[in-house]
Design brief:
Helix 2 packs across helix 5. Helix content is 56%, strand content 13%.
Length: 183
């Protein structure tokens, strides 16, 4: 997950630290929170690989993005003598850093931007396809093995997969204890 905070030029907090999931729903929520891409620069630390998916999604949405060196933001936070370290405090500190220091947007070559957009579109299609397949699986299980979901609440678990491989129909499953299978 990520944590986002928005601060205006006067230092007022516009969006308090908010957790965003590292998934399509989280990214949609973030884009909605941020609003118009033309009105702000999104600053983020380039830590490990954690920033890359978020960067790709926001770049594809048209946001100006400034990748920050974590050492610079840590030094900046140290100037305010912030000793505690949480994701929420970090998000506010990065937002303050961006409001005060106004880092330049990180420019990607046009070819890279186009490729990122295409990769995001491809990922979105894959996520949609996976959702379609899970809905199909639910339909088929409901039709052929309706009592299954009384015992196993999610079809994308290891337990559900193991049971369906061993007992593909209600008739094959009849009389088997789910507690016994879970062990």
């Amino acid at each position: 997950q990520h944590v986002v905070a928005v601060i205006d030029e006067a230092g007022r907090t516009l969006v308090r630290p908010t957790k965003i999931g590292e998934d399509a729903a989280g990214y949609e929520r973030l884009v909605a929170l941020l609003g118009d891409p033309a009105e702000l620069v999104v600053a983020m630390e380039a830590t490990g690989h954690y920033w890359q998916n978020l960067f790709a999604v926001l770049a594809a949405e048209g946001f100006a993005l400034a990748l920050l060196n974590p050492l610079r933001t840590r030094r900046f936070a140290g100037e305010d003598l912030e000793r505690a370290k949480t994701d929420s405090i970090d998000a506010l500190s990065i937002a303050r850093f961006a409001a005060q220091k106004r880092p330049a947007a990180t420019r990607l070559p046009d070819a890279a931007t186009g490729e990122l957009r295409e990769l995001v579109r491809h990922r979105d299609r894959l996520v949609q396809d996976l959702g379609d397949r899970v809905r199909q699986l639910h339909r088929l299980v409901d039709l052929g093995f309706p009592e299954f979901t009384r015992h196993v609440h999610t079809l994308d678990s290891d337990l559900a997969t193991a049971i369906l491989l061993e007992y593909p129909t209600a008739k094959a499953f009849h009389g088997v204890s789910v507690r016994h299978l879970a062990k």
